[in-house]
Amino acid sequence: MDFAFTEEQQMIRDTAAAFLKASSSSAAVRAAMVSDKGFDPALWQSICADMYWQALHIPEQYGGMGLGYVELVAVLEQMGRYLLCAPYMSSVAMATNALLVAGTDAQKALYLPQIIEGKIASLAFNSASRDWDACAVSVTYRRDGNDFILNGNYRYVLDGDNADVMVFAARDEGSVGENGISLFVCPTDLNGIERAALPTMDQTRRQATITVTNLRLDESTVMGDVGKADKHLNKILDLATIALAAEQAGGMQEVLDMSVEYSKSRSQFGRTIAGFQAIKHKAADMMLRGEVARSAVYYAACIADEALNDGPLANELSEAASIAKSHCSEAYFKNAGEALQIHGGVGFTWEYDVHLYFKRAKASEHFLGGSGYHRERVAKMLLD
Amino acid sequence: MKLQFSPEDEQFRAEIAGWLADNLVGEFAQLKFRGGPGDEHMFPEERKAWERKLAEGGWTCVGWPKEVGGRGLSIEQQVIFFEEYARAGAPGRMGHIGEGLAGPTLIAFGSEEQKSKYLPGILSGTEFWCQGYSEPSAGSDLANVKTKARFDEASGKWQINGQKVWTSLAHESEYCFVIARTDPESKAHKGLGFFLIKMDQPGVTVRPIEQITGTSEFNEVFFDDAECAAEDIVGQPGDGWKVAMGLLGFERGVSTLGQQMAFQNELNEVVKLAKDNGAAKDPLIRQRIADAHIGLKIMRYNSLRMLSGGSDGSLQKEALIYKLYWATWHRDLGELAVDILGPEADIMVNAPYELNRLQSLFLFTRSDTIYGGTNQIQRNIIAERGLGMPKELRPV
């Protein structure tokens, strides 16, 4: 039993922190978030060509680095900390995981190398549902000979407007709940796919809507079992949920650091406000929530590795994901809210960065399910 | 990162689990799940007999080095021991203050004479200890000790005068380790001594404190010219604070997983109750039960991190938050338990004031966020040591 980063994992984390501190500075984030694409293509290429982050947990046989989820989480934590604007969550934590969990050998061989080279990919499954599992799917498919015809509207698609490759979840016409779910992967330049960016309150993460109208997909696009891909989709979403929780843990650390630093520099009543217990105790609670978040995320990352490799603890995946996300969602938003309060008036300005974290915290809380949603998932496991 | 224990450690787990299954029977069966926090006053003689049984099996002081008679277990195996001990429902340890506090302090700071005089009684489960730190005027301000120690040249002994409070198991203990002021002019943490005092003597009076639960585990201890032999001061006069605080920095939390196993037993009872009485259908109760489950799981992950941390013994951030975290979690569990009981929570088992386990949990957990450093003191410590924020103003 050794529940600590290895030296190699520490190095990956420290390298990520140093790289992002320089490349995802406040000025860089603010420039990227209002740009056309919502990210800096040169930085994305550098992440791909110099850092190999897209390749982190892709097996070596597809050109990846063959590392695990713990390494991935170590990098995601730093991305959350520095508010990296990039299609990483979508391409790596959603689409890559989809390919790893449900892709055929041919699909992996085709698309994983593209992702490693910096192509953008994402997953579309939700059509304005408050559910974040297979039940959220309402886009339908019907068979036409050997083809599948998809119709419907997706919402909350991360980087959907920028994606080169999409994984689509759809349900057999007339099916309900977790039944009738299929997954497809295809390029985005096919006829029948319309995409539009959705303006977002959290400008650091891009969302889009995708409408599919009589989108015709052949059998080679099918991932996993036709009509029975709900278990794949749920596993992919659990993996993505853990990744998002890692980002949240990183954001929690940064808002704490910002707040402590600010409180030490701000004087009122003849002393720095850091000396007041009202501030110290807020900061202490923020540190507690942040440390606890890390414990939950690292454990979940170990379980994600087990799930990707069919290890003995693989069946803990859903629970571990819900534990991490339910804690991190409320905790990040609380920390961001306290950071704003500790900053006082300047925390309310556009000029200071607190609002970027405050908005990111709320958006991340809702995406893939908030604390209440994940607690109810756990309650079902315990009580029903 | 590795979550599994090694095959050798799992074999050790089987060994201790097997020993407990074989021995927690007969006269000891009634002690299962008894004697923990809130129940420490129960079965004292039977639990002392159990301590002797443990000692026979070599299961006292498992973390002490072999040179002083301990079992010399690795951190992992200590964790496993405490986990299996709690899983089996073995009773609250009468010897935990001697084993966990007095003994390690003597091993680190005591003279050879003190070690050979006191360690064997702790190892054999025959001599019990209590801790004399808190005083009426020294609660959160722990260094504000008023108890005085004066060396009497005529008798060649220390004379102790003053009062300690919140002393667990004082009425069941042979010895008390006491911090007392050796320099009457000194203030705060300077000028203190660390004394080993025999309880059975005319100058020591123990008075139980009746608690919120109607029961008494804590005591007041009065010293009126109590005697302490010249050789029974640990370190020099003036070293008392250093000795008392010396081990805190090396606490790696090996017993935390055992504590959590006990929490798990309580949570299981709460969950079962909610299913039985229908509260499990209430959406708000469901959220709170899930939150309790999630909180306990994360507590475990946090301990695993704590235990895997730096071998230099430095206090890490995840260790710094631990007390505040578990105490608050446990207090919340007590509230959840009675909210699931609903109106039944107000109905006693028996007159005049017999509580069931969940009622007791509700009341007793109010002490968790107070003793051993209140939540407010914990937050000061976290902010100051963990975040480098300014220290509280203290009189010079």
Automatic annotation (TrEMBL), chain A:
Q: Which residues form a coiled coil?
A: none
Designated name of the protein: Alkylation response protein AidB-like acyl-CoA dehydrogenase
Q: What species does this protein belong to?
A: Zhongshania antarctica
Q: Which GO terms describe its molecular function?
A: acyl-CoA dehydrogenase activity; flavin adenine dinucleotide binding
Q: Report domain Acyl-CoA dehydrogenase/oxidase C-terminal positions.
A: 237-382
The source's domain of life comes to: Bacteria
Cofactor requirements of the protein: FAD
Its keywords, alphabetically, are:
FAD, Flavoprotein, Oxidoreductase
Q: Which PANTHER family match?
A: ACYL-COA DEHYDROGENASE, ACYL-COA DEHYDROGENASE FADE28
InterPro entries reported in the protein's UniProt record: Acyl-CoA_Oxase/DH_mid-dom_sf, AcylCo_DH-like_C, AcylCo_DH/oxidase_C, AcylCoA_DH/ox_N, AcylCoA_DH/ox_N_sf, AcylCoA_DH/oxidase_NM_dom_sf
Domain (Acyl-CoA dehydrogenase/oxidase N-terminal): give its ranges.
6-119
Q: Which family does it belong to?
A: Belongs to the acyl-CoA dehydrogenase family.
From TrEMBL, chain B:
Which stretches make up the Acyl-CoA dehydrogenase/oxidase C-terminal domain?
238-386
Name assigned to this protein: Alkylation response protein AidB-like acyl-CoA dehydrogenase
Q: Which family does it belong to?
A: Belongs to the acyl-CoA dehydrogenase family.
Q: What is the lineage of its organism?
A: Bacteria, Pseudomonadati, Pseudomonadota, Gammaproteobacteria, Cellvibrionales
Q: Which GO terms describe its cellular component?
A: plasma membrane
* Ranges for domain Acyl-CoA oxidase/dehydrogenase middle: 130-225
Q: Name the UniProt key words of this record, in alphabetical order.
A: FAD, Flavoprotein, Oxidoreductase
Q: Does the keyword field hold Nuclease?
A: no
